[in-house]
Write a sequence for this structure.
C-alpha cells in the first residue's frame, strides 16, 4: 500500500532555529531519505515553503476566489511530505516515527486511495 | 444426532472459526457472513452425514468456499470492488492452504485481538470491537455496555472495521520490540472491558456482571495464548481478586458498601485462591514488573485479611509507592494517601491529598474530595469535612455513590446537633 506521510510543525519555532540546528536536522533528513530509498520504500518527498507563501483557491458558482494563507489557522502547519510504499499501517507508522520532524512536530499517516 | 452436540461445537469453535476466516478473507463482514453460512450448512449436512472428525476445519473450509461463491455471485458486492481485486481475492483465497492447524498458523484469535486493539483505532472503538469480534457479544449488548443506542454502536463498529481495511491495519501478532508496546494496549482494553462492568461510569447499575465475566474470559484467553506473560498474569489476577468481592460490594438496596464494611464471608474463595496463585506467578516472572501485578498484589493483601484490622497496611503503602514509580497517576496517588492514613494517620494523608489537589489536574475527581472529607472528619474538622463531602456529592454521577456521600454528610450533621450532650459529658 502507498501512504502519504504529512509532516506538521510549528513554523514560528522552525524559523527561530539556529544555523547549527538547521544543519543538524538537514543531515538527519538526508540520512533518513537515503535509508528509505535504499530499502525501496521511498516514492517521493518534498519540503514546502512556509504558509506565509500559501494561497487558498475556491470556485463558487463558476467564480474563482483566491485568498491569502492556508485554509485554517492551526498550531502546526504542513511543512513537507514523504510518499512511501509499506506493507501495512504498522510498517508505515514505523517509517513515520523515523522522520526527524516527528520529534518536535507530528506526522499524519494517510493511506493513498488506489485508482483503477 | 442431538442438537445439543452441534450447539456445543458452535459455541466452542465460533471465535476461532471467525478469527481464521477473517485472516483468510481479509474482511470482517465477509467473514461473519461466511461463518453464518457455514453454521447453517453444518446443521443441514451433519444431521445426515454425522459430525466430521475435525469440525473446526470443516467449518472454516465451508465458510471459505461460501465466501468465494458469494464473491462470484453477489452482483452488489461486485460493483463495490474493482474486478481486478475480485480476481486477486479469489486467487488469494483459493491459494490458501486448507490447513487450520494452530501449530502452523498460530492462533488466529491472538491476531484478531491485536487488530481490534490497534492504537490507530479510538480507545472506545477498541473496546467495542473487541467485545463484538473477540467476545462475540451482539451489537445490542455492546451498545448497552456503552449506554448508547444500537444504531449508534452499529455505525461505530462499521467505521472501525472500515478503518482496519482502508488504513491497512495488519492482521498479525506484532514481533518484538513492537509486541511489548502493543500488548500494553491489549491489556488496557481487557481491563477496560472489566472495569466498564465493575463500575459503570453513569446510571444506576453499579455492577454489570456480564462485562466482568467477559473481561476475565479475555484474560484467560490471553493467558492461554501468551503463557507466562507477567502483564497478562497480573491483569487476570487483578480482575479475579476484584471480582471475588463483587457479591459484597452492593447492598440489597443497591447501596455501595466500602471495602472495610464488606461482609468478608461473601467473598468468592475459589476466585481468591486462583487470583492469589496468579499474583505469585506474575511476580516470579523475571524481567520488568508489570503495574497490573503490583495492583493485583495490593488487592491480594486486602482479600488475604479475614478482618479489616488484619490488613497489612504498611505493605500496601509500600506497594503503592512501587506503583507510583512504575506508573504515576493522580488516582494511584490518592489511593496511596488513603493507605497512608491507615499507617501514619489522617494528617499526613490530608497533606498528600492537598498537595494532589493543589496541582489541579484532578480537582473535578469526586473521590479526591470524598477522601479529603474522610481525613478531615477523622481529624475532627467537621465544617471542612462537610464542605469536602458536599463538593464530592456535586461531582459524583453514580446514584449509589451519591447516596453514600449524602449519608456521610447527614451523619456528621446529626452529630453536630448534639453539642450540648458532648459538652455535658466533658463537664462531668
Amino acid at each position: 500500500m502507498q501512504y502519504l506521510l504529512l509532516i506538521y510543525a510549528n513554523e514560528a519555532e522552525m524559523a527561530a532555529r539556529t544555523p547549527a540546528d538547521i544543519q543538524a536536522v538537514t543531515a538527519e533528513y538526508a540520512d533518513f531519505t537515503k535509508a528509505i530509498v535504499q530499502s525501496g520504500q521511498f516514492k517521493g518527498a518534498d519540503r514546502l515553503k512556509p504558509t506565509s507563501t500559501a494561497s487558498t483557491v475556491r470556485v463558487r458558482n463558476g467564480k474563482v476566489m483566491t485568498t491569502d494563507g492556508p485554509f485554517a489557522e492551526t498550531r502546526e502547519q504542513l511543512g513537507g511530505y514523504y510518499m512511501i510504499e509499506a506493507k501495512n499501517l504498522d510498517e508505515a507508522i514505523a517509517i513515520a516515527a523515523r522522520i526527524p520532524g516527528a520529534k518536535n512536530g507530528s506526522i499524519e499517516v494517510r493511506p493513498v486511495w488506489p485508482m483503477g | 444426532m442431538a442438537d445439543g452436540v452441534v450447539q456445543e461445537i458452535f459455541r466452542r469453535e465460533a471465535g476461532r472459526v471467525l478469527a481464521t476466516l477473517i485472516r483468510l478473507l481479509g474482511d470482517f463482514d465477509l467473514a461473519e457472513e461466511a461463518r453464518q453460512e457455514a453454521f447453517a450448512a453444518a446443521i443441514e449436512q451433519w444431521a445426515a452425514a454425522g459430525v466430521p472428525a475435525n469440525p473446526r476445519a470443516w467449518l472454516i473450509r465451508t465458510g471459505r468456499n461460501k465466501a468465494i461463491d458469494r464473491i462470484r455471485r453477489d452482483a452488489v458486492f461486485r460493483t463495490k470492488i474493482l474486478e481486478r481485486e475480485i480476481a486477486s481475492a479469489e486467487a488469494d483465497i483459493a491459494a490458501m492452504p486448507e490447513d487450520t492447524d494452530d501449530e502452523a498458523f498460530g492462533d488466529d484469535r491472538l491476531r484478531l485481538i491485536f487488530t481490534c486493539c490497534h492504537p490507530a483505532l479510538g480507545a472506545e472503538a477498541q473496546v467495542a470491537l473487541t467485545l463484538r469480534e473477540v467476545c462475540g457479544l451482539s451489537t445490542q449488548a455492546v451498545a448497552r455496555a456503552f449506554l448508547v443506542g444500537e444504531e449508534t454502536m452499529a455505525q461505530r463498529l462499521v467505521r472501525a472495521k472500515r478503518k482496519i481495511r482502508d488504513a491497512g491495519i495488519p492482521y498479525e501478532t506484532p514481533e518484538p520490540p513492537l509486541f511489548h508496546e502493543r500488548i500494553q494496549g491489549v491489556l488496557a482494553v481487557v481491563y477496560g472491558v472489566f472495569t466498564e462492568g465493575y463500575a459503570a461510569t453513569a446510571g444506576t447499575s453499579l455492577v454489570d456482571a456480564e462485562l466482568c465475566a467477559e473481561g476475565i474470559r479475555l484474560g484467560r484467553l490471553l493467558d492461554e495464548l501468551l503463557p507466562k506473560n507477567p502483564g497478562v498474569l497480573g491483569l487476570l489476577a487483578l480482575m479475579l481478586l476484584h471480582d471475588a468481592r463483587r457479591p459484597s460490594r452492593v447492598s440489597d438496596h443497591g447501596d455501595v458498601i466500602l471495602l472495610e464494611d464488606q461482609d468478608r464471608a461473601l467473598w468468592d474463595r475459589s476466585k481468591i485462591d486462583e487470583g492469589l496463585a496468579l499474583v505469585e506467578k506474575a511476580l516470579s516472572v523475571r524481567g520488568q514488573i508489570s503495574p497490573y501485578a503490583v495492583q493485583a498484589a495490593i488487592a491480594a493483601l486486602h482479600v488475604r485479611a479475614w478482618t479489616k484490622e488484619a490488613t497489612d497496611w504498611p505493605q500496601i503503602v509500600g506497594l503503592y509507592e512501587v506503583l507510583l514509580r512504575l506508573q504515576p497517576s493522580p488516582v494511584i496517588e490518592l489511593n496511596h494517601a488513603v493507605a497512608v492514613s491507615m499507617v501514619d494517620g489522617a494528617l499526613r494523608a490530608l497533606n498528600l491529598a492537598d498537595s494532589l489537589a493543589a496541582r489541579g489536574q484532578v480537582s473535578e475527581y469526586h473521590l479526591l474530595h470524598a477522601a479529603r472529607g474522610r481525613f478531615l472528619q477523622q481529624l475532627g474538622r467537621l465544617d471542612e469535612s462537610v464542605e469536602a463531602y458536599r463538593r464530592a456529592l456535586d461531582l459524583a454521577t453514580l446514584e449509589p455513590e451519591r447516596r453514600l456521600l449524602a449519608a456521610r454528610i447527614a451523619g456528621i450533621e446529626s452529630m453536630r446537633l448534639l453539642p450540648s450532650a458532648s459538652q455535658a459529658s466533658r463537664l462531668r
Observations:
- Residues 83 and 214 of chain B are 41 Å apart (CA to CA).
- Chain B touches chain A at residues 82, 118, 120, 166-170, 174, 178 (CB under 8 Å).
